[in-house]
Amino acid sequence: MLGGRGRTDIVRAFAWEERIYLRTQSPWIVGEAVHEGTHALDYNSGLLATLSVLQYEKRAWFYEHTFYRWNGASTHFDRIDYVVNFIRQAYRAY
Ligand SMILES: [Zn+2]
């Protein structure tokens, strides 16, 4: 998530410019830090301003799920088209 959009009762993490916000109770807090950290780094580099929502969310989800896989955790995104479909549904309002 970028910019804290969405329902506050279900948002687990978000990035605002170069800052990231994480719920300390989240069991996926480190993976969420990778995701939101990607947005923050993209913001700092100027890349974020050049990308569509689909593009910058694909980058963040890719790095988050790559982190889970490197650490031996399972992920429900086995293929990139699953990630793209999820992003299109979850971020369709943006
Ligand atoms: Zn995101």
Characterization of the model:
This protein is mainly α and 94 residues long. It has one domain (13-90). The protein is built from three helices and two strands; from the N terminus they run ββααα. The protein has helices at residues 29-45, 53-70, 80-90, and strands at residues 13-16, 19-22. It has a two-stranded antiparallel sheet with strand order 1-2. A hairpin with a 2-residue loop joins strand 1 and strand 2 (19-22). It starts with 12 loop residues before the first strand and ends with a helix. The mean pLDDT is 86.
Instruction: Please give the radius of gyration in angstroms.
Output: 13 Å
Ligands bound, unique: zinc ion
How large is the share of residues in beta strands?
Answer: 5-15%
Largest sheet: 2 strands, antiparallel
What's the number of domains? 1
Strand order of the largest sheet: 1-2
| Share of helical residues | 40-55%
Structural class: mainly alpha
- Low confidence ranges: none
DSSP strand count: 2
Number of helices: 3
Strand-and-helix sequence, N→C?
EEHHH
Shape, per Cα inertia axes: globular
